[in-house]
Amino acid sequence: MDPFIEHHNTAYSRRQFFRKSGTGLGMAALASLLGKSGMAAAEGLAKMNGVSHIAPRAKRVIYISLIGAPSQLETFDYKPELEKRYQEDLTGWLKEQGERLTGMTSGQKSFPVAPSRFKFQRHGESATYVSELLPYTAKMVDDICVVKSMHTDAINHEPANQLIYTGSMQAGKASIGSWLSYGLGSMNEELPSFVVLHATHSSPYANVQAISARLWGAGFLPGKHSGVALRSAGDPVLFLKDTPGLDRKTRRKMLDGMNALNARSFDEIRDPEIEVRMQQYEMAFKMQASVPELTDLSGEKDHTYELYGEDSRKRGTFANSALMARRLAERGVRFVQIFHRGWDQHGNLPRDLASQCKDVDQGCYALIQDLKQRGMLDDTLVVFGGEFGRTVYCQGKLSTTNYGRDHHPRAFSMWLAGGGIKGGQTYGETDEMSYNIVQNPVHIRDLHATMLDLLGIKHENFAYKFQGLDQRLTGVEPAKVVRDIYA
Question: pTM of the prediction?
Answer without folding.
Answer: 0.86
